[in-house]
Amino acid sequence: MDKLKKLVIASNNQGKLREINTLLEPLAIEAVPQSDFNAGEVDEPYATFVENALTKARHASRCSGLPALADDSGICVSALGGAPGVTSARYAGEPKSDERNNLKLIETLKNQSNRRAYYYCVIVLVRHADDPQPIIVDGSWYGEIVDQPRGEGGFGYDPYFFLPEFGKTSAELSAEQKNRISHRGQALAQLAGILRAGKF
Asked: Over its length of 200 residues, how does the chain's per-residue pLDDT go in tens digits?
């Protein structure tokens, strides 16, 4: 296949779109959001990140006629048996709200001393909607949950996701720092290696 020059990102999340675009920029790949093709969000009915990401990628590719990249990610909290996990974006129900999700998480952890948590991300890249061999990469980012939000950057659970080695929450990191070490940054770095090697 010719070098990948353009793909569609299967997301309407502005924070996620910014991060993915920044990380793809050095590869000279034009990444356009699925909204450019009037592709609405698709249901994510599965219990695993990879199945949901694959569903989103196939949908975006079908709507756009382009190769498609989708990520499914969430925060997994040890004391909650890995919850909210795949339901992270809708943890507090519909409509999706970062503020309500965070409030519910802090309330649920109120009497828990174990605050260990990690962000997990799986990224799927399909050549076309029915691609039988999608590229799948993933990344994990470990930290803990704090009760009070800190920082103005990031999105989702970032103001409550504390990184002991930095003494900061994810929302207090610069975008450059976050992109280097985050779960999504790790997964996209793997993907970039695959693309640079011409394995797509």
From this structure: 456 889 999 988 888 888 888 888 888 888 899 999 988 888 888 999 999 999 999 999 999 999 999 999 999 999 999 999 999 999 999 999 999 999 999 999 999 999 999 999 999 999 999 999 999 999 999 999 999 999 999 899 999 999 999 999 999 999 889 989 999 999 999 998 998 888 77
Residue among 87, 31, 33, 23 nearest 60 (CA): 33
Q: List residues with catalytic annotation.
A: 72
Q: Which domain holds residue 168?
A: 6-196
Whether 1 maps to a domain, the answer reads no
In a domain, 88, yes or no: yes
Structure tokens at 59: 């949908």
CATH of the domain at 24: 3.90.950.10
Question: Does residue 45 form part of some domain?
Answer: yes
DSSP classification of residue 184: H
| Residue 163, domain member (yes or no) | yes
> What count of other Cβ atoms lies within 10 Å of the Cβ of residue 26?
9
